[in-house]
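Question (not urgent): is this output format expected?
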Amino acid sequence: MLTHLSIRHFTIADHIELEFQPGMTVITGETGAGKSISLDALALTLGDRADSRTISHGAQRAEIVATFDLTQLPDAQEWLIDHDMEQDNDCLLRRIITREGRSRAYINGQPCTLQELKALGEMLIDIHSQHEHQSLLQRDCQRRYLDAYCNANDLALEVKKACTQWQNCTNRLRSLQANDEEKNARLQLLSYQAQELDSLALAENELAKLEEEHKILSHAEQTIQDSQLAMNFLSNADSGSAIENLNQASRLLSNIAQQNDRLSEISQLIISAQIQTEEASRELQYHIDNFEADPQRLTEVETRLNAIYQIARKHRIKAEELPGFYQQLKEELSELQSGDEQIEILQQQQEELAKQYDLLAKRLSNKREKGSSKLKKAVTKQLSKLGMENCRFEIHLPQKETAAPSLNGLESVDFLISTNPGQPAQALNKIASGGELSRISLAIQVITAQTSSTPTLIFDEVDVGIGGGTAEVVGNLLRLLGNKNQVICVTHQAQVAAKGHHHVRVSKQIDKDKTLVEAENLLESNKIDEIARMLGGLEITERTMAHAREMLETTD
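Got this back:
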């Protein structure tokens, strides 16, 4: 659910802060006041294309932050966990647009791509507007609506999994059934590569051990020289060694430490340092006595490393990846060598998987067939209430042309509409106007609200071209939808606005020759004034106020 929206320097909105609650929120304002600015800004946080021209005049960048509560959205929470972006039950989507034309996006403070923003946004909000990118125009969305209405989401997921298993098996089978010439050439190449790696006989962790040994051997002379010099500093008396100096300091302090407790503590510290220095001197001497430069061994190590590096370069991989590459080679070689047996096994698996898929897909088709008949009748009836009496809603389920398993089942799902008697039903984007499309969306959403997984629904001016009783019906439907989902609606109609659980008013202000838009959440007392403004003309009378009050009281 959307809980907060912050907008800075976007078009003529210098700074807007809006709080959103569950239920139906209406956004109203005079014509041209900028009612859709907040929705346009919100769309940017959901992955819409950015344009530097939307930055307020005089500002260097626009910034929009949308906050969501994911308590009731396990799918979105799982998505965030999978992408290492989780943050309790809250989710912050942030979008920044710079004057230079650059755009940056963030999810819970972490940079993200627009594709990631869109993927997550689809789980959070469904925007129903007059724009052609509306989700209802997409076939995938239409299929999801029908499957949700049919209570077939789990079955559709099983069909997709069965298809994926069949495709994986088929791909492996096709690889094994390649023509003999290609198969033999591949077999020869793999045999040569495997034999080469067999000869290399790279042991486990050998590369790391060789590199460490090479580092030690290649610096042998410097190691001995520096160790001897350190030894001289520690114990060579002729150079005023550390041990001799500590001995002298210890003897001097031991004579006077008995008269001074503080000096006694210092004396003990020096004695401790003396013991540790002598121990270090013995260990260093042992290292010098047992360390030898071994040019022959260095040559052997370098030869072995060169052989490993050369084969790795040959296969265009890192040296440390050779063991995994070798294992992969052996598995593919084994599969090719036992090709006939593997082909027979895979053919049987393919047949079994195809049968499993067919059973599941037919069950899904039956559910879709029964559900589509009920859904089209319910939507057509709802459209009649929305002032589209002559509208006929159809759902076609054309069979896929290919007999091969498909991820989405045996058929496609097409929503069609006929807006006039005698007119054949056609695709929504070919025949429905913007206002009609919004009302069709509203009708479908109301019908499928009990199964909808999208928590926030936005309707941008769904009341275009309607009024009177039809507008009141739209308002009632939106409020009904708001009882389950969070609904945000931009409206011109007082009949729709009166049905809102919450009310946001947008207005324009002129400040020092600068036009700014402001938005505020209205209290109950302010709602009456706004509804009266929408009902009245140039003059708001007491009768208009009474009518507005009555509309709100009737809704409550």
